């Protein structure tokens, strides 16, 4: 069971709802997390149970980022709106950087999200074992 987070900017929320609805059969077997409004809308549209954090601009991105920093998140689908300035852009940038540092798969558009979810559905999403096997000095989420 993986820990998966959903984040979507306002103009991407409908796209996220449609995506999660289409792959509900995949997501139902995992622990799901989301920022506030996105999570609420997904739960209303599906039968999925989602742990909701605060809205992104109010700190939800940072709450998910804290899980990433602790190596306690496995996959993030973050449908960003690249054409709209976001008031919490530093938080977004920090989350993206943390995903790179920890090796957490992060989809920022629907095409990449679909590739990752299809891999998850096939059962060949064993990235965590590979990261720990080939990255010297990392054991149990800690840098030694």
Any overview of this molecule?
With 144 residues, the protein is an alpha/beta fold. It has a single domain, classed as 3-Layer(aba) Sandwich (Rossmann fold). The protein is 48% helix and 16% strand. The protein contains seven helices and seven strands; from the N terminus they run E-H-H-E-H-E-H-E-H-E-H-H-E-E. The strands form two sheets. The protein has a five-stranded parallel beta sheet, sandwiched between helices. A two-stranded antiparallel sheet has the order 6-7. Helix 5 (89-102) links the parallel strand 4 (75-79) and strand 5 (106-107). Helix 1 (13-22) crosses helix 3 (36-45) and helix 4 (60-69) runs parallel beside helix 5. It is globular, with a radius of gyration of 15 Å. The two termini are 26 Å apart.
Descriptive terms for the model:
144 residues, alpha/beta, Rossmann fold, 5-stranded parallel beta sheet, 7 helices, 7 strands
Secondary structure layout plus pairing:
Layout: E1 3-8, H1 13-22, H2 24-27, E2 31-34, H3 36-45, E3 51-52, H4 60-69, E4 75-79, H5 89-102, E5 106-107, H6 110-122, H7 127-134, E6 138-139, E7 142-143
Parallel strand pairs: 1-2, 1-4, 2-3, 4-5
Antiparallel strand pairs: 6-7
Helix pairs in contact: 1-3, 4-5
Keywords: Lyase
Family: Belongs to the methylglyoxal synthase family.
Catalytic activity: dihydroxyacetone phosphate = methylglyoxal + phosphate
């Amino acid at each position: 069971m993986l820990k998966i987070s959903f984040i979507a900017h306002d103009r991407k929320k409908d796209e996220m709802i449609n995506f999660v609805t289409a792959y509900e059969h995949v997501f139902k077997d995992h622990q799901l997390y989301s920022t506030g409004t996105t999570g609420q809308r997904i739960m209303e549209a599906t039968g999925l149970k989602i742990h909701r954090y605060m809205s992104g601009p109010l700190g939800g991105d940072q709450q998910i980022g804290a899980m990433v920093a602790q190596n306690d998140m496995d996959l993030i689908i973050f449908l960003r709106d690249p054409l709209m300035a976001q008031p919490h852009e530093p938080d977004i940038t920090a989350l993206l950087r943390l995903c790179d540092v920890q090796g957490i798969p992060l989809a920022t558009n629907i095409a990449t999200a679909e590739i990752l979810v299809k891999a998850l559905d096939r059962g060949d999403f064993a990235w965590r074992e590979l990261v720990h096997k080939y990255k010297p000095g990392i054991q149990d989420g800690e840098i030694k």
